[in-house]
Amino acid sequence: MSDSQRGRTRSESTRQAILEATRDELAASGYDKLSIDRIATAAGAGKQTVYRWYRSKSELVAECILEGYVPSKTAVVADSGEVRGDLRAWLRGFADHLAQTENAALIRACTAAAAESDEVAAKFYERVTAANEAALTARLDGAVRLGQLRADTSTAAVAEALIGAMLYRLLVRQAPTDEFINGLLDTVFNGIDASSVPGVGR
Amino acid sequence: MSDSQRGRTRSESTRQAILEATRDELAASGYDKLSIDRIATAAGAGKQTVYRWYRSKSELVAECILEGYVPSKTAVVADSGEVRGDLRAWLRGFADHLAQTENAALIRACTAAAAESDEVAAKFYERVTAANEAALTARLDGAVRLGQLRADTSTAAVAEALIGAMLYRLLVRQAPTDEFINGLLDTVFNGIDASSVPGVGR
Amino acid sequence: MSDSQRGRTRSESTRQAILEATRDELAASGYDKLSIDRIATAAGAGKQTVYRWYRSKSELVAECILEGYVPSKTAVVADSGEVRGDLRAWLRGFADHLAQTENAALIRACTAAAAESDEVAAKFYERVTAANEAALTARLDGAVRLGQLRADTSTAAVAEALIGAMLYRLLVRQAPTDEFINGLLDTVFNGIDASSVPGVGR
Amino acid sequence: MSDSQRGRTRSESTRQAILEATRDELAASGYDKLSIDRIATAAGAGKQTVYRWYRSKSELVAECILEGYVPSKTAVVADSGEVRGDLRAWLRGFADHLAQTENAALIRACTAAAAESDEVAAKFYERVTAANEAALTARLDGAVRLGQLRADTSTAAVAEALIGAMLYRLLVRQAPTDEFINGLLDTVFNGIDASSVPGVGR
DNA sequence: AGGTAATCGAGACGGTACGTCCAGTCTTTGT
DNA sequence: ACAAAGACTGGACGTACCGTCTCGATTACCT
After folding, report:
1. Nearest residue, CB atoms, B112 vs list A112, A158, A195
2. CA 20 to 30 Å from B83, out of A36, B22, B173, C71?
3. Which residues pair with B193 in a beta bridge?
4. Could you tell me the distance in Å between the CA of residue C181 and the C1' of nucleotide F7?
5. Is the dihedral of CA A60, A62, A66, A71 positive or negative?
6. Is the pLDDT of residue D72 over 80?
7. CA distance D115 to chain C (A)
8. pLDDT tens-digit profile of C49-63?
């Protein structure tokens, strides 16, 4: 076979160390104060090695997200039978996660990175939306099958509205209070149209 | 009074030129590649003059947003009597605005800036959410009064869900299609709870 | 007049500090291990300031030579009436100067710099040869006028032979001993041609 | 026997290729821009192979000189019976050699290398002075024996004065003209002392 | 009208980080 | 064991900006 190994094999453990150092820097300093020098030093690596793996700051951050060094944290939505309560619990779990300053800083840094780079944006979408939407979809679809939710529910719309609202709150430094979460759930579950009020329209 | 004017008066027109140059740079290069040097040169100003008005990069960007050099574009929601149609029109208008690459780049840059700086975040919230929420509230409250919408509608929740979803789409480079907008409106207007289906539950 | 001062005036004292730091580095580390970073730090200057004054390492070294931070040390040849003794004293003075390791390192570094760069070579010639040749010429011409030396003496040839021999010795790490100096003077004063032996040929 | 051959034998032809590549780089780029990477690539060798033969850049250059890849060019001084003419021819041959830019660059690079490294200086002396002095000595001694030159001629002094003067000219980029060479020979053959003028001093 | 003082464009200052290049070492597969 | 290939740490390169400071040259108010 022609693709035999030539030269020293690239050190996977160094790569891990770089990603970990990046995550720490990201949480500590934010995206645009990231210093490749500092990351390399913290990882015990040469600067060139960082650049060998990742061609730019944004690619590095993107990989950091994708490899899960920035946890999306919210892989599954519990299933207690009561779908609204499950979603509330999930959103509160998300809110609790963001209540940790370090986590908040990390995700904000990723947001900044995604805003600056198409590449990071793609990874961000892939990791954050896809994962969360999958989790939500799994739970919502079950509820739809049981007749607890409308058959025409657009999972994608619900997922993006919820995630979007949470990230927006994170961005503008408004902690997502229980009140806010309840308002969100009321809107999404009940709808706002007058005809959607149970017992009305009969 | 003691704060009488001494020395040369600060040139308001230079300040305008700085803000305009900042907006252009922001759209062209994004937040973390902003260069005060370039801004000053483009504005025909000295660097010191920039710093005399704004103490830092983030303060400059914040002011840029607040002064409306970054337009929120969506000051009012039309009132045709049909509230759902009005919201659809408003969201489509927003989507059209973002379809212009320059506008999209500009708002993404502001997003990045807000992610990096509490100060910018505050101004961003003040300008973007407040303005849009006010516009939505004005329209929604009218509809509530006419009995077209539920009395318990949480305007804030609706506004943040809609804005959040739109910004999230911007962030992850998914253009907000009509389909997406319709899904969003269906969710928000109809709700997803099975009991919210009109004519069901009888 | 149109050449009015624009911007802050360049700091002459910083320039001096840079040249001094360069000389120290040159003596300590030699030419190709010169580090602009270290020079800047030692001079308490930013790297950019070094590059503002001198576009390259070689230009910096050249200026260092020309400004006399690398002393040619041998400005004048004494005049005791006895020209051969005066030259011997001058050569011994040169040898003593080179016996100091720091001085030797410094001149060797300049030699290396001159070898690598036309620009430095020009300055080196201007400063070292010109100065020494002038000193030698002044002394030799006097002796010629007094009839102590041949009228057809080529000062330039003598100067370059002496300086060349001394620098060559420095280069190959052969200390210029008294024996060597005497051999040199014998050759130059007496000549090697058999017909130049006094009292021979009769 | 204990020094039996173990493993693959070191390739002499690779070593030659390395030295040739070094000479080419030296002539093209000078000493301090030498790149081991480039040399290895040009020689079709691995970097480690270079370091297996030569422990450092300066040792490599030193060896390059010693192996004659940097030609001293002037192995013998012709013997036509007329010693002054022979020396003139030899010096002119040297001058012609240096007139080739590539040769000049090569020797200047070696000079720089010698200035920076004791090791290279030793090899330089060994190869350049020793070889030339031997050539000059062979010729001068013959002339002394024939009574053409003074019996007390210091060959070493003559050799170093001539070589030193030529190298100094190379260093300061002053081509050694016929005029210069003649001045040098006049000085060395005739001497400068008034008493050395033939027919005078009686 | 003349003095005083803050502002202006310009650009040098000490620094920090960039992304590239190279030195010298280490590791892998192949000969 | 040596060879080519190439990844490794470490460190210097020359450039670009940062935010501050210093120029001479404007304005403007205040005697």
Report:
1. A112
2. B173
3. A149
4. 55
5. positive
6. no
7. 5
8. 999 999 999 889 889
Structure tokens given for C38: 């270290």
Strand F contacts (CB < 7 A) among D residues 33-52? 41, 44-49, 52
Please provide the size of chain D in residues: 202
Interface test with C, best of D168, D170, D182, D200 (most C CBs within 10 A): D168
Q: Which residue is nearest to nucleotide F22 (CA to C1')?
A: C8
DSSP chain D: --S---SSPP-HHHHHHHHHHHHHHHHHH-STT--HHHHHHHTT--HHHHHHH-SSHHHHHHHHHHTTSS----------S-HHHHHHHHHHHHHHHHHSHHHHHHHHHHHHHHHH-HHHHHHHIIIIIHHHHHHHHHHHHHHHHTTSB-TT--HHHHHHHHHHHHHHHHHTT----HHHHHHHHHHHHH-SBGGGSTT---
Which residues 43-82 of B interface with strand F at a CB distance below 7 A? 47-48, 51, 55-57
Q: Cα separation of C112 and C5, whole Å? A: 38
Find the mean pLDDT for residues B133-149: 89
Could you give the 3-state DSSP secondary structure of residue A186?
helix
Contact at 8 Å (CB) between C150 and C136? Answer: no
- For the four alpha carbons of A94, A95, A96 and A97, in that order, the dihedral sign comes to positive
Which nucleotide's C1' atom has the smallest distance to the CA of D39? E22
User: Which residue of B185, B192, B196, B202 is the best one to mutate when testing the A interface, meaning the one whose CB has the most A CBs within 10 A?
Assistant: B192
For chain A, the C-alpha Rg in angstroms (whole number) is: 21
Sorted by sequence, the CB contacts under 8 Å of residue A97 that are 6+ apart come out as: A73, A74, A103
Give the H/E segment covering residue C58.
helix C57-66
Residue with tokens 């997003």: B111
pLDDT for C170: 94
User: What positions of strand E are covered by protein, i.e. any atom < 7 Å from a CB?
Assistant: 4-31
The reply to whether B7 has its C-beta less than 7 Å from any atom of strand F is: yes
Sign of CA dihedral B81, B85, B89, B91: positive
Residue (of B197, B86, B196, B74) closest to B141 by Cα position:
B86
Other residues' Cβ atoms within 10 Å of the Cβ of residue C104:
16
* Residue D200 reports pLDDT greater than 60: no
| CB burial readout C119-141, b (16+ within 10 A) else e | bbbebbbebbbebbbebbbebbe
* CA B118 to the chain's CA centroid: 16
Place of tokens 């969506």: B74
Q: Which of D116, D124, D154 shows the shortest C-beta gap to C187?
A: D154
What confidence tens digit (pLDDT) does each residue in B14-26 have? Answer: 999 999 999 999 9
- Round to a whole number and report the distance in Å from the CA of B36 to the C1' of F17: 8
